[in-house]
């Protein structure tokens, strides 16, 4: 059986890290964790006692194909960013562009240890095929706007074709945001999700203006809106951003089927604010981490999000205990996986899927890293540059700079050509 040998293993289910071998089975699940050197079978990777193994990172809110729009809209507030730059550029994207942008994102995410992502966009069958070919896992939805029945039909067709595919895809319905989808339409989408046993992925209270609109125009509090729309009843509800979620209403979403996705860098860059993570954690809601799209970040790098989240809330709260390294690593792994509907992903334990990344500790920033402090080293000293290998369901996707499922040079040249055509037209 395939073995990842002699690595320092940490996941959110354990306090101390431990040296050991990760033995995987034919089903792509972890069979056993043995003492170092005791795992028998084909060697997938030999860490030689100088590598750390973590669960694959989860990017719980993004728009992967926006990698082609990176740098097109800089230093603008959200509504200008969307209406003046992003929506007009998106009008020009073809299905082939969507595939290229997704493939480009796969290169960036896999080499940075991201093995699972959650995406909202359009021509989503292109994103699904990119995901399947790359070998990663993900939660996909078609972004829905207005009361457009055609888009809802496309989203349902996506679910028909891909939901549950190869155990690596979940499909949600994707109402874009309360300000682009009327309340009655959101209610219908939630009812449809419940009827089809699908989740919902929603942009939620990203800016202060959205909270003001709830109160001044819709005359409803956000938690009441979620409840009255039926959104709290769907298979999984993924609320991206939640920057302006009134903290006294958080207890209403502390449910196993609801996940708030913190996107610290995108929120900072667009000047949207900072989500109240201290209060999120105190209220018991599940929190995951996302990058948002590459046009507002501009990286799809979860290491960056972990570090930013772990630092900014300490400064903001004048409290160095808020958003500790272990908490943000949990957000970036098992919390993201559960939120996206993957119940057996995100821990390095027997019977969990073997979605594992290997980090180089033979590097100046890891001197002193041991069983007691591995998560703190990873979050405060680590970086995506340290990722040496990525596995999904025990299958190697990336090892020592080589992509095993993707043709890097071909994707880069296709991406350069697509981008050039996009800005010239
Ligand atoms: Ni977004």
Gyration radius, in Å: 21 Å
Report strand %.
15-25%
Highest-level CATH class of the largest domain? Alpha Beta
Low-confidence stretches: none
CATH architecture of the largest domain, please?
Answer: Alpha-Beta Barrel
What is the molecular shape? globular
H and E string: EEEEEEHHEHEHEHEHHEEHHEHHEHEEEH
Category by helix and strand content: alpha/beta
Q: Report the major sheet.
A: 9 strands, mixed
**DSSP summary, beta strand count:** 17
Overall structural domain count: 2
Instruction: Indicate the percent of residues in helices.
Output: 25-40%
CATH overall fold name of the largest domain: TIM Barrel
Looking at CATH, the homologous superfamily of the largest domain is: Metal-dependent hydrolases
User: Number of helical segments?
Assistant: 13
What distance lies between the first and last C-alpha atoms, to the nearest angstrom? 52 Å
Mean pLDDT: 97
Structure description:
The chain is an alpha/beta fold and 425 residues long. It folds into 2 domains: 3-56 and 346-393, Urease, subunit C, domain 1 (Roll); 57-339, TIM Barrel (Alpha-Beta Barrel). It has 13 helices and 17 strands. It has helices at residues 78-91, 95-111, 124-134, 149-162, 183-196, 208-218, 222-229, 264-269, 277-283, 302-317, 325-339, 374-381, 408-424; strands at residues 3-9, 18-24, 30-34, 43-46, 51-55, 57-62, 114-121, 137-144, 169-175, 199-204, 237-241, 258-262, 286-289, 356-360, 387-392, 395-399, 402-403. Strands 1, 2, 3, 4, 5, 14, 15, 16 and 17 form a 9-stranded mixed β-sheet that branches. It has an 8-stranded parallel β-sheet with strand order 6-7-8-9-10-11-12-13. Helix 2 crosses helix 13 (408-424) and helix 10 (302-317) packs across helix 11. The radius of gyration is 21 Å and the shape is globular. The termini are far apart. The structure holds nickel (II) ion. Residues 61, 63, 203, 240, 292-293 line the site of nickel (II) ion.
């Amino acid at each position: 059986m395939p073995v990842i040998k002699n690595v320092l293993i940490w996941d959110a289910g354990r306090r101390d890290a431990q040296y050991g071998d990760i033995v995987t089975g034919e089903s792509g699940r972890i069979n056993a964790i043995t003492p170092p050197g005791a795992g028998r079978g084909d060697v997938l990777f030999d860490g030689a006692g100088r590598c750390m193994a973590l669960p694959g990172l989860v990017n719980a809110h993004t728009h992967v194909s926006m990698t082609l729009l990176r740098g097109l809209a800089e230093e603008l507030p959200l509504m200008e960013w969307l209406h003046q730059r992003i929506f007009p550029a998106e009008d020009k994207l073809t299905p082939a562009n969507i595939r290229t942008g997704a493939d480009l994102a796969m290169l960036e995410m896999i080499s940075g240890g991201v093995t699972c992502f959650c995406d909202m966009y359009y021509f989503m069958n292109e994103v699904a095929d990119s995901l399947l070919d790359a070998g990663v896992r993900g939660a996909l939805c078609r972004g829905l706007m207005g009361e457009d029945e055609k888009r809802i039909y496309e989203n349902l067709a996506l679910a028909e074709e891909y939901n549950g595919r190869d155990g690596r895809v979940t499909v949600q319905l994707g109402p874009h945001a309360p300000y682009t989808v009327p309340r009655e339409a959101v209610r219908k989408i939630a009812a449809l999700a419940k009827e089809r046993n699908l989740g919902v992925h929603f942009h939620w209270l990203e800016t202060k203006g959205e909270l003001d609109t709830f109160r001044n125009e819709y005359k409803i509090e956000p938690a009441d809106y979620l409840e009255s729309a039926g959104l709290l009843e769907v298979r999984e509800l993924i609320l991206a951003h939640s920057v302006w979620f009134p903290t006294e209403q958080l207890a209403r979403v502390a449910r196993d089927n609801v996940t708030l996705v913190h996107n610290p860098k995108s929120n900072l860059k667009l000047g949207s604010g900072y989500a109240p993570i201290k209060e999120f954690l105190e209220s018991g809601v599940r929190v995951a981490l996302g990058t948002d799209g590459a046009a507002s970040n501009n990286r799809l790098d979860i290491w960056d999000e972990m570090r930013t989240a772990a630092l900014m809330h300490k400064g903001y709260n004048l409290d160095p205990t808020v958003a500790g390294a272990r908490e943000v690593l949990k957000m970036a792994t098992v919390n993201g996986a559960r939120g996206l509907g993957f119940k057996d992903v995100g821990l390095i334990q027997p019977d969990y899927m073997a979605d594992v990344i290997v980090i180089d500790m033979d590097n100046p920033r890891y001197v002193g890293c041991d069983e007691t402090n591995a998560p703190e080293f990873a979050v405060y000293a680590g970086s995506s540059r340290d990722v040496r290998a990525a596995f999904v369901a025990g299958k190697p996707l990336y090892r020592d700079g080589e992509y095993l499922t993707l043709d890097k040079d071909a994707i880069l040249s296709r991406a350069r050509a697509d981008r050039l055509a996009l800005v010239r037209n």
